[in-house]
Amino acid sequence: MSVTHWPGLNSRPGLLRRLARGERLNAAVDWPHVIEEVQDVGLSELRACQSLLQQALVHLLKLHAWPQNQAAAHCRDEAGMFLDDAARRLTPSMRHRIGLDDIYGRALRRARATSAVSGEPRPMPEACPFTVDGLLSGDVEALLAKLQAAS
């Protein structure tokens, strides 16, 4: 019998909490299914955090490359918002799984592909000048200074 079909149980988390308290249940737990679901949720959260970091980096790179653009204030706000959201989602177990160089490379390609911005961009660093902790500090001005120093 699968976990979802147990009478009186509203959710898998409820079942897991009952098992964690040591309650004996009269049915077998579909552990492979439970493990798969936990892994899927973890992977989904990791991807969401990586996406937020990438979006923040795109905005930081645009802000660095075109500091006088009329959208600069918007980019600053967006970068801060994405960084705050990423910091809120990040769990300790995700920290070592964040591929920052890969995320930065994708953000760099997206920032360079920007067509809505006029004028010649300032050079953008080829290599990621940030650490995960540095990004998650959310200090947009410090991050921009780091981009400037690395250019």
Topology record:
Blueprint: H1 12-20, H2 31-65, H3 72-89, H4 92-95, H5 100-112, H6 132-136, H7 140-150
Helix pairs in contact: 2-3, 2-5, 2-7
Average pLDDT over all residues:
84
The Cα radius of gyration reads 21 Å
Q: In sequence order, what are the helices and strands, one letter per element?
A: HHHHHHH
Which CATH class of the domain at 46-150 is shown?
A: Mainly Alpha
- The CATH topology annotation of the domain at 46-150 reads as Malate Synthase G, Chain: A, Domain 4
Number of helical segments?
7
The fraction of residues in strands falls at: under 5%
How far apart lie the N and C ends?
A: 60 Å
At the fourth level of CATH, the homologous superfamily of the domain at 46-150 is Uncharcterised protein PF01724
* Cα shape: elongated
* Protein structure class: mainly alpha
In the CATH classification, which architecture of the domain at 46-150 applies? Answer: Up-down Bundle
Helix content: 55-70%
Q: What oligomeric state do the depicted chains represent?
A: single chain
Main sheet properties? none
Low-confidence segments? 1-10
